[in-house]
Amino acid sequence: MLAKILFKLFLFSTVATMVQAQEGGIDFSAMKIGTKLTTRTVWTPQSTFVAEYIGAKDGFHLIQNYKVKDGSLEENILDAYDDQGRRVWSTRNGHTNRFTPYSCHFVIGECNHQYEYYNVLTKKMVTNQSRYFNRREGDVFYLGIYRSDGSLHEVAHQLGAYNLRLSNVHQNALGQDSGFEFIELTVPE
Q1: Which stretch is the leader sequence (predicted)?
Q2: Residues 29, 157, 120: CA angle, nearest 5 degrees
Q3: Quick check: 143 and 132 in contact, CB under 8 A?
Q4: Domains of the chain with CATH codes
């Protein structure tokens, strides 16, 4: 009897996680290869970035991020997402950063992830744990991270086509403008 109850709980939690992820993750099912999202940072000096969907490889959907520099695109970060649109790893400057089991930035509800990244100052891989409570209201995704004092800090992300994050203008801990703003979404014909 206990085994049946545990199995049902496991099954329910698995289905619930899949539904939640689809509500928060990027929807690659209809996205065309070559779709580009252009954004700009809100702080000075402003920087412009282009994120381009370059297709799927080895079971991951790949988005190549570029920084616009002197009118040209300079490769910046390569992000890999699972089929539910959750980021799993990123590569930058020859180093791969990983989320286990995936980035909570793309999940609705309570979520914990482990983030392993290359620290440029210590020249070592570092691992940290983060706890989130994210929610969605219409086309706004609220990324909520728990601070060390237990309080929840939320940042609102405006969502667009494919659940792409178009903008997230907010105040940082110092009271300064932070985040990025939407410029354009280009979808190939």
Answers
A1: 1-21
A2: 90
A3: yes
A4: 2-186 (2.40.360)
